[in-house]
Amino acid sequence: MSLSREETARLADLARLSLNDDELARIAHDLAEIIDYMEKLAGIDRADVEPLSHVLNTVNVYRDDRAEPSLSQEEALANAPDRQGEFFRVPRIIDTGEGSEA
Amino acid sequence: MRKVTERDDYEVVVGIEVHAELATESKVFCGCKTDFGARPNSQTCPVCLGMPGALPVLNRRALEYTIRAGLALNCSIAVRTKFDRKNYFYPDLAKGYQVSQYDIPVAHDGYIDIEVDGQPKRIRVRRVHLEEETAKLVHAGDDIISANQSLLDFNRSGIGLIEIVSDADMRSADEARAYLTKLRSILVAIGVSDCKMEEGSMRCEANVSVRLRGSKEYGTLVELKNIASFRAVHRAIQYESARQIDLVRSGGRVTRETRHWDDARGETAFMRSKEQAADYRYFPEPDLMPLEISREWVDEIKSGLPELPDARAARYAREFGLPASDAALIAESRELASFFDGVCDALAKAGAEAVDRTDGPREAAKWLVGDVSAALNASGIELSQSKLAPELLAELIGLVASGKISGKIAKSVFEEVFASGKRPGDVVRERGLVQISDAGQLAAIVQRVIEANPGPVSDYFAGKEKAITFLVGQIMKETRGRANPQETNRILREELAKRA
Ligand SMILES: [Zn+2]
């Protein structure tokens, strides 16, 4: 199967990757090979195989609901590329309005 | 040619998505506290700041609360489930993805029963899933911040969040509000979230479309965001459905988009088109292990559920004979309900105070939905912040029931008790408000009033029944409202009869 230039560019955009024409072509080719391989797997009879959601054979790993010490404000903000007082400062996103997707 | 349609030919179809922050002590995947109002960025760690290499571990109570919410909403609980990554870029999401649940929510296929204008209706709950809260973006009006910058507080990042998605079962703004009210009352009753819309711990989005009545097809759906109160939900849906109906009737087409509710303007505004909607490229979260939820654990959580608002309202109606509307109103608010229970306990303890087993609670309910609610609204505080205690209201009810004060005086005593927290008995004594029920004392006052008002008295004898009201008014004036109304009436008629 092949991946169109538009599809590849859309994926790059979703991943916030800036690719030039050569890179787009190469990645489209690589992705197509990966998809071909996945399709090979999809062709195998999997009737008796449980869907796998994790490679480790462990379930139910919990912690108790107990508050632990946090970083200090200064530690938390130490690596911030930009800050203002007690806050991280970031470029404002305008096109989607207020708040996030969540 | 387009068929001419009326506004009434259309119906609105509403589905609602609610996010509620879990009331756990620590965050969902790290040990940071969840306290509201702490100094910005003082409750963070490498996990909730999204530092590379930091690993999340699930807070067991967050999962328990999600199951509890699912059970209280009559859902089935997944046997096996997992977390997934929802990938998108936004400044409030440090990792570039949100840990959420995609194809297997913790709970699915439940319902909430609501009632609008006496009509019961079942609204289906499609799913309840667990995810992490994002950081809080602050667009402060600080002039140092230029128009193209925002500030971030990561204290909120990583707080456990449940998303509750309804089916598109609501057909009016009233139903949407009733659904949200009931949903909040349930979540608060089971203690999984405090659901404070004003603090953002409960948020809601409405999916609104319109269609011709009787149509099987759904109209194009518009997503409404930035709805910050129950009142706003109602207004936003009313506005948006009218906008869509007018658009369709004038030959236009609704486009699939997200719109922002502007509460001050009272209208919705275009935010973004759904055609450009993000593709989240979900995949299983490799940093968290899958979950197997045992039936024993589910049963244990189920048996630990407290009485839910509907059951409580039914019990109030059954045990105390409360009118259904009062019972529902009280049972829907955890605060009102526990206060009401407190008054009933205090009344039962007082016992001898001539308060009947059901009369007392019925009076308590009347006070709560009447004067108490009005006083709270007027002062803008919550019941728990007021000086009124259940024992005080019980005492006041006792004073009326035993005939020490009249119902009218009780209202004025209540105002002082509400404002000061003083005991009603003390207020009555201090202000000399004890009701005059003594027949001899009342007869003397009645005789004085009769002698001082020959005109109305002869009106009465001339058959004007209304003159009685005037004479009673005079007696009340003389006693500053303390005369026992029933006794006064009886003695007045007796004294008049003597003069006939
Ligand atoms: Zn943390």
Give the SSE layout.
The complex is a heterodimer of chains A (102) and B (500).
Chain A lengths: L4 H10 L6 H22 L19 E2 L9 H5 L5 E2 L2 E5 L11
Antiparallel strand pairs in A: 2-3
Chain B lengths: L9 E12 L36 E2 H13 L3 E2 L2 E2 L2 E4 L9 E4 L6 E10 L2 E14 L3 E3 L10 E5 L6 E7 L6 H17 L12 E11 L9 E6 L2 H20 L7 E6 L4 E7 L9 E2 L6 E2 L2 H9 L5 H12 L3 H9 L1 H17 L8 H21 L10 H12 L5 H14 L3 H7 L8 H14 L1 H8 L5 H12 L6 H15 L1
Parallel strand pairs in B: 13-14
Antiparallel strand pairs in B: 1-11, 1-12, 3-7, 4-17, 5-6, 5-16, 7-8, 8-11, 9-10, 12-13, 14-15
Helix pairs in contact in B: 2-3, 5-6, 6-7, 6-8, 7-8, 7-9, 8-9, 9-10, 12-14, 12-15, 13-14, 14-15
Bound molecules: zinc ion.
The site of zinc ion (ZN) has 8 residues of chain B, from loops.
Low-pLDDT stretches of chain A are none
| Overall spatial form of chain A | flat
Q: Supply the number of helical segments of chain B.
A: 15
Q: What integer value in Å does the Rg of chain B equal?
A: 30 Å
**Total count of strands of chain A:** 3
How many structural units, i.e. domains of chain B?
Answer: 3
* Proportion of beta-strand residues of chain B: 15-25%
Give the fraction of residues assigned to helices of chain A: 25-40%
Strand content range of chain A: 5-15%
Do you know the CATH architecture of one domain in chain A? Orthogonal Bundle
Q: Gyration radius of chain A, to the nearest Å? A: 22 Å
What distance lies between the first and last C-alpha atoms of chain A, to the nearest angstrom? 34 Å
- For the record, what CATH class of one domain in chain A applies? Mainly Alpha
Multimeric status of the protein: heterodimer
Query: What's the mean pLDDT score of chain A?
Result: 87
Helix content bin of chain B: 40-55%
Q: What is the element string of chain A, with H for helices and E for strands?
A: HHEHEE
Average pLDDT rating of chain B: 91
